[in-house]
Write a structure and sequence with these properties.
Layout (H helix, E strand, L loop, with lengths): L2 E8 L6 H12 L15 E8 L2 E8 L2 H13 L13 E6 L7 E2 L2 H5 L6 E10 L1 E3 L2 E3 L4 H15 L6 H10 L1 E14 L1 E13 L5 H17 L12 E3 L26
Antiparallel strand pairs: 1-3, 1-4, 1-5, 2-3, 6-10, 6-11, 7-8, 9-10
Length: about 260
C-alpha cells in the first residue's frame, strides 16, 4: 500500500535531503539490509521544504513492509530530535492523513481511478530526467509517463500492459503548460522545472484513459523523474477546474490542521 508521511520539524530551515536520506537508510538498514543497494527505482521518495507554517519533511513509500516500518520509526521520533546536523530538529507532529501531502492508498484504490484522456500534474519541486547520460529539464509527456510506468511496474501487483505503455509514452501530448525553470544542485548545478502540465492522449481508448489516470494517482507517492529520494520530482494530480484545496502543497503549508494521533 503506497503511503506518505509528513513531519513538522522544529527547525529554522529544511534539512539537507542527502542527510535526511542517510538517516532513513541508517534507521531502516537493520530490518531492510538491501535497501541502500537496491537499484533504481527506489521504493521511497523524500522531500523537505519551509513555508509560512514551518519546516516540513515528507517520506513516501511504495512497499507496504517498508511503509509500516517507517511509520513506527517516525512515530518514535514524536517530540524527539532527529539526528540531522546542524540543527538536529525535534519532531513537533507526525501526519499520516491530516496533511495534504500525507495519505495512504491501496493499489486497488489506484486501480479504480476514473478514466480520463487528460492528466493534469502539478510539479512542486524541481523536476528533471536522465536522458543520454545528461540531465534533461523539459516536461516531456513521454518522459513523465515513462517514469511513472517504470515505478508502477516495479511495485504494483499488476503491470501496465506493454501495448498500453507504448501508446502512452509515444502518443501522449501536452495540452497545457505553465512551468518555469529553476537552477538546483543535484551533485552538480542543473536546471529543473516546476509548475503545471496537462497531458492529453488523443483518441484514447477506455483502457488507455484508465491507465493514464492510475499513473496520475501514483505520482503523489512515487514522484516523477530523477533523484526523487533527494527531494526532486515532488508531484501530484490537480483538478482541471482549478478548485485545488488551499494549502495542498508546500507553499500553502498545513496551518490550522491537527496532527494525527498515533494508532
Amino acid at each position: 500500500m503506497p503511503a506518505a508521511f509528513v513531519l513538522h520539524l522544529n527547525a529554522q530551515r529544511p534539512p539537507a535531503l542527502i542527510k535526511l536520506r542517510g538517516w532513513l537508510y541508517h534507521a531502516l538498514t537493520p530490518a531492510f539490509p538491501e535497501l541502500h543497494d537496491r537499484p533504481v527505482p527506489k521504493p521511497f521518495a523524500l522531500a523537505a521544504w519551509k513555508d509560512a507554517s514551518g519546516v516540513w519533511a515528507r517520506f513516501a513509500f511504495l512497499e507496504d513492509p517498508l511503509a509500516k516500518a517507517a511509520a513506527g520509526l517516525l512515530w518514535e521520533r514524536l517530540n524527539q530530535p532527529v539526528p540531522l546536523p546542524p540543527e538536529n530538529p525535534r519532531v513537533l507532529a507526525v501526519y499520516e492523513h491530516a496533511h495534504p501531502w500525507s495519505g495512504r492508498r491501496g493499489w486497488d484504490e489506484l486501480m479504480a481511478a476514473a478514466p480520463s484522456a487528460d492528466l493534469p500534474l502539478e510539479f512542486q519541486s524541481p523536476t528533471f530526467f536522465r536522458r543520454r547520460d545528461a540531465n534533461y529539464p523539459v516536461p516531456s509527456p513521454g518522459l513523465i509517463l515513462a517514469s511513472l510506468i517504470r515505478d508502477w511496474n516495479a511495485f504494483a501487483p499488476e503491470p501496465v500492459p506493454p501495448e498500453v505503455a507504448e501508446r502512452l509514452v509515444e502518443y501522449t501530448t501536452a495540452r497545457h503548460l505553465n512551468v518555469r525553470t529553476v537552477s538546483v544542485t543535484a551533485h552538480s548545478r542543473t536546471p529543473g522545472f516546476v509548475g503545471r502540465v496537462t497531458l492529453h492522449l488523443p483518441r484514447a481508448t477506455e483502457e488507455e484513459a484508465r491507465w493514464l489516470a492510475r499513473l496520475g494517482e501514483l505520482a503523489f507517492f512515487s514522484g516523477v523523474g530523477a533523484k526523487t529520494t533527494l527531494g526532486f520530482g515532488l508531484a501530484r494530480r490537480y483538478e482541471l477546474d482549478g478548485q485545488d484545496s488551499k494549502g495542498a502543497h508546500p507553499d500553502g503549508g498545513a496551518g490550522g490542521r491537527s496532527a494525527d494521533r498515533k494508532p
